[in-house]
Amino acid sequence: MTLTDLPKSTTYAIVGAGVHGLSTALHLARELAATGRGSGADVVVLDKTAPGAGATGIACGCVRNFYMTEPLHDILRHSLDVWMEDPVNYAFQQVGYISCGEGNQIDDYGRIHRHQNDVGYPSDLYVGAEGKAFLKAIWPDFVTDGIDVVLHEKKSGYAGTRQFVRGLVEKCEAAGVRILSGVEVLDYESENGTVRSILTDRGRMKVDMVILSVGAWVGKHWSLLGKPATISCGYADGRAVEKDMWTYWRLLEGEVYVDEPYRTAIDGDPPVLHVEMMNTPVVDPATGKEIQDHLYVYWKNGAERMDRPGVQGGTIPIRIGPEAMIDPYGHANDEYQADDWFADYMCAAMGQLMGRFEGCRKNFRERRNGGVGAFTPDNVPVFDWIAPNVYMTADSNHGFKMAGVGKLLARELVRGETPAALKPFAFTRFAEGRTFGASNSHSPWV
User: Fold this and answer.
1) What pLDDT, in 10s, does the model give residues 384-439?
2) Residue ranges with strand state E in 68-163
3) Half-sphere exposure of 110 (CA within 13 A, CB side)
4) pLDDT band at 95, cuts 50/70/90?
5) d(Cα 279, Cα 283) in Å, to the nearest integer?
6) Which of 44, 255, 304, 401 could be joined to 365 by an S-S link, Cβ 3.0–4.6 Å?
7) Residue 332, number of CB atoms within 10 A of its CB
8) How confident is the model at residue 370 (pLDDT cuts 50, 70, 90)?
9) How far is CA 73 from CA 64, 70, 84, 404, in A?
10) d(CA 154, CA 121)
């Protein structure tokens, strides 16, 4: 679609062509056709760069359901349906996902395991010696010292981000959705709180409904809509805490080449692996010095962006604060490249966990690794109306794996009923004393 094709009006304007914007567009087109209320021709997606130009396009690509925030489990159950609809075109490798922890997280893992199975997302739990044996059966060189609990999600896995975006774009266009790249939204023109038009650098477009799926740019659009920079967050115990509406975190992910294929004991593609050892330091094998006082790392076989075989993974993001430079985004932004210690940390952690990765620092892929995520006040997504005709999908950087949010949202937009899986993520939770609390982890994601 050329830049001159900005329509004068549309029923549904989706701002942002990442996972949420594209998934919503596709499923909205399907819902409209299925109910006889319209078609993909009623849907326009605007992106100031191109599909997948933000976090979706540079994500590591893990598809998992390991969250201590239990309502997220149902979201991922629905998302799995989307991934499995067309795993080839979506580049989905259903290899499973394994998370490991120390004794202080056994109770947390038990709750996650029970709730995942309650919502129909099967997982197995191993404690103590059973967990160590389970890991050794997959990776014989796994150093299981200190690992006391293991959770195995059987249906999780990983995907190639660029192929996934291509697959969604092709399906959207086949359904009649118009995806306009190179169109930047400059402002929203409202009347009594209802957005009537979107002002872009390519002209003005009248709209009936707006869906914001802008990822790291959510703070900008929030401000354009006249929303406040801070919010009072109420908790179940009666506390109210004033917080920044958006907090930016710098993402830390990268790649490590492998000298021998990264395989399981039976020569299979290994599950995605995540390990958090909250009381185990990561030590630089070259110097013997402690890099961090805890170990948090994840990795899986490289799916894309590798010029030879390797693994992709990362660790906990670094908090920036309530303001950040979003443009240029990702690897092009000089301000937010991965710290110098990141490669040392990731490789040392991998070497501590598996013998095959000892001394792998020389194999770290030296390239620009950058990205920024916008997190909500409680680090949990907000999926809700923020104006009479403006819906916001603010995923708090949980996004890539949550391909099902767009499918659930499409039902709400067309049928007028909020799916049960979306209700816990209402914006009103902050005022109603339902702000999510902190979890037993160093990571803001769980």
Assistant:
1) 999 999 999 999 998 789 999 999 999 999 999 999 999 999 999 999 999 999 88
2) 92-93, 97-101, 123-127, 149-153, 157-159
3) 9
4) very high
5) 13
6) 255
7) 10
8) confident
9) 9, 6, 17, 12
10) 8
The pair of three-digit structure tokens given for residue 254, joined into one six-digit string: 């990268």
Residue 1 pLDDT exceeds 60:
no
Compute CA distances 416 → 391, 408, 410, 443, whole Å: 13, 11, 9, 35
Q: Which residues pair with 194 in a beta bridge?
A: 191
What pLDDT digit, counting tens, does each position of 143-193 carry?
Answer: 999 999 999 999 999 999 999 999 999 999 999 999 999 999 999 999 999
DSSP 3-state of 280: coil
CATH of 1-93+156-242+379-446, one of 3.40.50.410, 3.40.605.10, 3.50.50.60, 3.40.50.11540: 3.50.50.60
Indicate the burial class of 81 (C-beta count within 10 angstroms; 0-12, 13-18, 19 or more): exposed
For residues 122 and 320, give the distance between their C-alpha atoms in angstroms, rounded to a whole number.
36
Angle between helices 404-415 and 71-85 (to 10 degrees): 100
